[in-house]
Amino acid sequence: MYPAIASLAWREWVRFVRQPNRVIGALGQPILFWLLFGSGFGSTMRMPGATENVDYAEYYFPGTLVLILLFTAIFATISIIEDRREGFLQGVLTSPSPPLAMVLGKLVGGTLIAVAQASVFLLLGALTRVNLPWTGVLLTIPALFVLGLALTAIGFTMAWRLDSTQGFHALMSVFLLPMWLLSGAFFPAGDNWVGWIVRLNPLTYGVALVRHLLYWGANEETLRRALPADLPALGLSIGVTAAFVVGTCGLAWFTAGRRSAGDLL
């Protein structure tokens, strides 16, 4: 089982390095958003409970990390539809390896690619505009892996049920991107009905976990400036994120097990 997982994960890496446009799409666009929005909003943003305005580029930085994970998950799992057309997926499902090996191979491969790209942006931010303690940078990378695994599992579940890339992009536009927008990554939760949606969104607690870990070891002044007053507590963020990744990976496994190789023909 483990050789099958490693082989499928390595295949994702090989496909990734042979498609440089994926790097541009998954890494370049979020960085462009960060630069444009960070420069456009500047220091005009005021978080709930804050006594002073904050640099929006600093607030938006953790959200950009999660957006990179999301975009990479989309590009990694859309290949499932291509594998079905080429017959590769049918061959994997008829092999002696269990369906779980195929699921984990796709998820681990896509997640490692996502974390690698997010880590590049994380180091770029730490060395340029965002004042981050290096302890927080190192602690954030495992959290990015866990969160990337959950997002890749969501993409896997969606792609497994679809037969066209057009349908996948449509679901991305009406489900995945709004899920990110309503996670506290782009704007803090308010007291209106949108704020309640943000608090019910499990991705909100993943973004909160990244915020907590990014500033681990920072001084109190930095924490007061960078973290919203209504940010979910660290323990709650860890618990919800753990349940989120277990639930999404379990759903991906369940979905793959219900559709056999003959159904994919």
Descriptive account of the structure:
By secondary structure, this protein is mostly helical. It has one domain (2-264). The protein has helices at residues 2-17, 20-41, 56-77, 79-86, 88-93, 99-127, 134-160, 165-181, 193-200, 202-214, 220-226, 234-258. α6 runs antiparallel to α7 and α10 (202-214) crosses α12 (234-258). The radius of gyration is 19 Å and the shape is globular. The two termini are 24 Å apart. The model has no long low-confidence stretch (mean pLDDT 81).
Describe this structure in a few short sentences.
This protein is mainly α and 265 residues long.
What's the story with the biggest beta sheet? none
> First CA to last CA: what distance?
24 Å
What's the mean pLDDT score? 81
Helix content, binned percent: over 70%
Domain module count:
1
Task: Based on Cα principal axes, name the global outline.
Answer: globular
Number of helices: 12
